[in-house]
Amino acid sequence: MTTRTVVLNPLGAALLHYRRELVSVLEASGQPTDVLEFPEPSAGGGSRSRWVLRYVQALWELRRRGRRPSRPARVVVTWPVLGYVDLLIIAACLPGAWLTVHDPVPLVRSLGYGPVSRSFARLLGRRARIIVLSEAAADEVRKALPAATLVLLPHPILEPEIGRSRPEDEVVRVLGQYKADRDLDLLKSIAEDGAAGRYAITGRGWPAVEGWHVDDRFVPEDELDDLIRSASVVLIPYRRFFQSGIAVRCLELGTPVVGPRNSSLRALLAAHEELLAGERSADWTRAAGAAIDLSAEELHELSRDARERATHLWAGFLNSLDEGPFASLR
Questions:
Q1: How many domains does the chain have?
Q2: How many CA atoms lie within 13 A of 235 on its CB side?
Q3: β-strand partners of 276
Q4: Same domain assignment for residues 66 and 192
Q5: Which residues cross the membrane (predicted)?
Q6: Shared-domain flag, residues 110 and 190
Q7: Pair 195, 287 in one domain
Q8: What pLDDT score was predicted for residue 35?
Q9: Which of 170, 210, 254, 313 is the most exposed place for a label (fewest CB within 10 A)?
């Protein structure tokens, strides 16, 4: 009997693309996959308390389904609704489910990551089962919950597009919501040092940045893909982050990406370290030039390698839940 994997996504709007990436990787590895998702309050309306209640009900429903002999399942939760408190909720409602913790030290104000939440979650010991998507995230989770069962897996990625042409005009883009960890001084210096035709930032909450055209607004999913496709290169100029969904989407769409050398992008871009930049703006200008010079074949190979690695490691992890060291944890 084949064990299915259920992806529970409580951020049905914000994590729609991530959920698609994850399901695509699981199905490519031969894992039968079901999806249970619903939108967050900012997208679907309703109160935060009703959203949390819906999340708890979803966990109980999956527990009820799992009791059927014909419907055993592994469950992966895509995002913690209440931070580390989710581990307590999962322990009560659906023991054996795995929680994906993207930002163990949140980049924006979030509930459930403070000392009290960590203390209660620490009581679970190894029963706290956590997936992280970068070494940096793994280090922070180990500090917060040293006894937790922790698995490091690559960010999932869709099958890369092929055959798209490069934009005629040279455009350097930064995409995504503004957060305090965005390096505004670096961006200003990059525009001063560089020779691209246009420097553009698109995302909610950005202040004015000298040398850049700033479009301060929320970007819908379809338009985000168009912005990535129209870029000569996308920069990830942040002081601190645990993984970049934007960088992964760039690889999916055949657009080169440049980011900090000392970040999770090092694993993603290992085959082309020239795309990794140091702290100086000159490093970023050099890396952006190297990215633009990459051929379509080189970009496709980089994306394909990331896809194959994600497929292999996610499949190995899920198979180990039945056959290896995690079998007793279900």
A1: 2
A2: 33
A3: 259
A4: no
A5: 73-99
A6: no
A7: yes
A8: 96
A9: 210
Contact at 8 Å (CB) between 90 and 82?
Answer: no
Residues 149 and 239 both lie in one domain: no
Q: What is the pLDDT of residue 73?
A: 76
Nearest to 255 by CA among 277, 276, 228: 228
What pLDDT sits at residue 46?
83
Residue 276: per-residue pLDDT: 94
Euclidean distance between CA atoms 247 and 176, whole angstroms: 11
Domain region containing 123: 4-158+307-329
Buried/exposed code over 300-327 (b: 16+ C-beta within 10 A; e: otherwise):
bebbebbbebbbebbbebbbebeeeebe
Task: Examine the domain organization and report whether 236 and 317 are in the same domain.
Answer: no
Looking at this protein, which amino acid is placed at residue 250? C
Indicate whether this model's pTM tops 0.85.
Answer: yes
Q: Are residues 76 and 195 both part of a single domain?
A: no
Quote the CA–CA distance of 210 and 190 in Å, as a whole number. 10
Instruction: Give the chain's end-to-end CA distance (angstroms, integer).
Output: 16
Q: Using an 8 Å Cβ cutoff, are 108 and 83 in contact?
A: no
Instruction: Please list the ranges in the chain whose pLDDT falls under 50.
Output: 324-330
CATH number at residue 206: 3.40.50.2000
What's the Rg (C-alpha) of the chain? 20
CB 228 within 8 A of CB 283: no
The dihedral of CA 30, 31, 33, 39: what is its sign? negative
Instruction: Report the pLDDT value the prediction gives residue 324, as an integer from 0 to 100.
Output: 47
Encode pLDDT of 248-286 as tens digits: 999 999 999 999 998 889 989 988 999 999 888 899 999
| pLDDT score for 221 | 84
Q: Is residue 225 part of a domain?
A: yes
